[in-house]
Amino acid sequence: MINDQNNPLDLAGRLQQLRKQRGLSQEELAGRLGVSRQAVSKWESAQAQPELEKLLALSDFFAVSCDYLLKGEEAAPLPLQPPAPPAAPPQPSKTNRLAYVINASLWAWLGLLISWALWSYYYYSWCAMLGVGFVMIGVAVLAMGLAGCPAEQQPGLLRRFWRWSIWPICQIGLGIACSWLASHGALLSPVISFWAVEFGGPGIFAASWGVWLIICLGVWRWSRRA
User: Fold this and answer.
1) Could you tell me where the DSSP H helices lie in 25-153?
2) What's the confidence (pLDDT) of residue 79?
């Protein structure tokens, strides 16, 4: 009989060789595989070939490939896969970025309201500085929202921030400027306050209102058109 790679005798000889290398009898090998001794005997005498399921079991048991059992060849090693690129850090969604802008604006409004409330009771410069501090916190929150944001989306988020935040920020800035003009001290005279009328006269009060309205409406229109 011709002895080639596909001849059942080759499979039979390899099974017999592997079994003897393990020091097992046909009966012991049959017990390990859950088949009869006659089945193992027929495999090794080339009277029959193991079914696919049993061939896989033989491959696992002897720790060799099916190619080796059938053809006497070890399977070629799989090509090395290139390392996967590092996963990109998750980008905040559009909704999350907008939430940062809203939170930043709320910090500015909170700073104005707290400054007004404290000013009406204490009349000290730290009331104004507290309002400025809240605005700075809002700016930091905005910076966190812009971090990792695509460059083409950043101008839109900035316009939204100014559309909502120019009102308290301008109010705080004009309040400090108004109190400095009236009393030469950087206190906090909210524009909507009769303190400006009492110490600076109706002219400063009216002018502050007008400047505040012009600036806020100008920024609002710019943010809507841009």
Assistant:
1) 26-33, 37-44, 52-62, 66-71, 94-122, 125-146
2) 47
- Cβ atoms < 10 Å from Cβ of 178: 26
- The answer to pTM > 0.90 is no
Interval 154-190: pLDDT, tens: 888 888 899 989 988 888 887 777 766 666 555 555 5
**Residue 159, SS3?**
helix
Q: Which two tokens stand for residue 123?
A: 């009349």
**Alpha-carbon gap, residue 48 to 44, rounded angstroms:** 8
- Give the tokens for residue 220: 């609002």
Cβ neighbors of 84 (< 8 A, separation 6 or more) are none
CA angle 164/170/173 to nearest 5° reads 145
